[in-house]
Write a structure and sequence with these properties.
The protein is an alpha+beta fold. The protein contains 16 helices and 17 strands. The chain folds into 2 domains: about 15-200, Creatine Amidinohydrolase, Chain A, domain 1; about 205-470, Creatine Amidinohydrolase. Strand 2 and strand 3 (about 70-75) form a beta hairpin. The model has no long low-confidence stretch (mean pLDDT about 95). The structure holds manganese (II) ion.
């Protein structure tokens, strides 16, 4: 019998069957794998990272498949920094960069593809080719990504040797086995994560192109939802319609779709999406398609289910829209990252005073008060890229308290949220939540709103819904 464990619901494999399974297969053709697009850009990133840590060994894993329940796993999604350096989608791999002076060597440790040369193709339900499909293996991985490869089984010994020669840094919290095997050096390891996040702050042309594709696919997903709205009885339908587009046009959603109807819009990350949608409510849809390149959009539209905003919904919507316009105007190189936020909060506070919700905008805006935040809850921007909340390990002085620079991509997403039980809000506004979120590229001269083609004004949103109804 095979030494592989047999699942509780399956029978074993007698030796005679294994012998039978090992014979009678055509010799597999081995065409060279196609190199990925932008292989030179990925190589340049590896070189730049090595140069930032001369004389050191850098270890960047992609991580493993994660268990969902018992023996089923979530679809694998590569570690962001690993992918940024390699373009590789397969699980388990580890990238090791070694540098000495100007010399730099990259090695990708990956699982070999034994083909049908050993019985695991049939007996290993986790990695076997007949269970989960073939892996690229050493040769094809090297061809596809332009990086020298070695078998994963050699990693442990190679690391012992490499670490004896040079200091190292590892990207942590991605690969628990690697974390356990390499003594932690909290500060040095954190500096590697920071360097990677800060490299990713400025997007190159390949990245901007991929973000545009993700935004375009997300636009199609929003169109799908608008067309489905007349028949959509629950938030689940909205989620399902959008997520279908994400799988058809991209890799997946970049984060769990928020399909929040009525007062659920006041819950920032409402992803349970299990509520029945009411007739004259708003639907807040915060969703993004993650392209096959793993770059994700992050877009929010707040739509009147009936096709027309009520006067109260419209008043709140117009205020959020004005705040977003004020934020866009501050999106330019040299401004503080927080300038768009300051502008948006100023507009929101003034508007909240006009609606009779804040007694004094001036008082609410003081640093020691920030009372407007009871209704706006979050800042208006975060970096966007491979991660929806991108570049998370960048230092505050280069991100939150830094300057906007050409090549940065970020969201602009003011919102107002009036909780159902908030006695400081006139009753007619309670339960209304509005967020409008677009994705922008900072250019040399200002801003390029990547998602500008998705209807956003009251008139355009109402016309969008009306046009979809006319087709139905
Ligand atoms: Mn966002």
């Amino acid at each position: 019998m095979s030494d592989k464990p047999v699942a509780s619901h399956d029978s074993g494999n007698p030796e005679n069957l294994l012998r039978f399974m090992m014979t009678g297969w055509a010799t597999p053709p081995e065409p060279p794998a196609t190199p990925i697009d932008g292989a030179g850009l990925f190589a340049g990133r590896r070189q730049a990272l090595s140069q930032a840590f001369r004389g050191e060994t850098l270890i960047v894993p992609t991580g493993h498949e994660k268990t969902r329940a018992n023996d089923t796993v979530y679809r694998f999604r590569p570690g962001t920094d690993f992918y940024y350096l390699t373009g590789n989608h397969e699980p388990d791999n580890v990238l090791v960069l070694a540098s000495a002076g100007d010399a730099h060597a990259a090695t990708l440790y990956c699982e070999p593809n034994p083909g049908k040369a050993d019985a695991t193709f049939f007996t290993d339900r986790v990695k076997g080719e007949l269970w989960v499909g073939p892996r690229l293996g050493l040769q094809q991985t090297a061809q596809r990504y332009g990086i020298a490869t070695k078998p994963l089984a050699a990693l442990a010994d190679d690391l012992v040797a490499a670490l004896g020669r040079a200091p190292y840094r590892a990207l942590r919290a991605i690969d628990p086995q690697l974390d356990a095997a390499l003594p932690a050096q909290a500060e040095r390891d954190a500096e590697l994560a920071t360097a990677l996040s800060e490299m990713r702050l400025i997007k190159d042309e390949l990245e901007v192109g991929e973000l545009r594709r993700a935004v375009e696919a997300t636009h199609r997903g929003f169109d799908d939802v608008v067309r489905a709205l007349p028949g959509a009885q629950t938030e689940r339908t909205v989620e399902g319609v959008f997520n279908l587009r994400a799988r058809v046009d991209g890799n997946d959603t970049g984060y769990n779709t928020i399909a929040a109807s009525g007062p659920n819009a006041c819950t920032l990350h409402w992803t349970r999406n299990d509520r029945r949608i009411g007739e004259n409510e708003l639907l807040l849809l915060d969703a993004g398609v993650e392209a096959e390149s793993l770059y994700t959009a992050d877009i929010t539209r707040t739509l009147p289910i009936s096709g027309r905003f009520t006067p109260e919904q419209r008043a709140v919507y117009e205020l959020v829209l004005a705040a977003q316009d004020a934020a866009f105007a501050q999106c330019k190189p040299g401004n503080d990252f927080l300038d768009p936020n300051r502008a948006a909060m100023g507009v929101l506070a003034q508007g909240l005073e006009r609606l009779g919700i804040l007694s004094s905008a001036e008082e609410a805006l003081r640093d020691e008060n920030v009372f407007y935040k009871r209704y706006s809850l979050h800042n208006v921007s975060h970096m966007l890229g491979l991660d929806v909340h991108d570049c998370a390990a960048a230092r505050a002085e280069n991100y939150k308290h830094g300057k906007l620079r050409a090549g940065m991509t970020l969201t602009v997403e003011p919102g107002l949220y009036f909780q159902l039980d908030d006695l400081t809000v006139p009753a007619r506004y309670r339960g209304i939540g509005v967020r409008i979120e677009d994705d922008v590229l900072i250019t040399e001269t200002g801003v390029d709103v990547l998602s500008a083609a998705i209807p956003r004004t009251v008139e355009d949103v109402e016309a969008w819904i009306a046009a979809a109804k006319a087709v139905v």
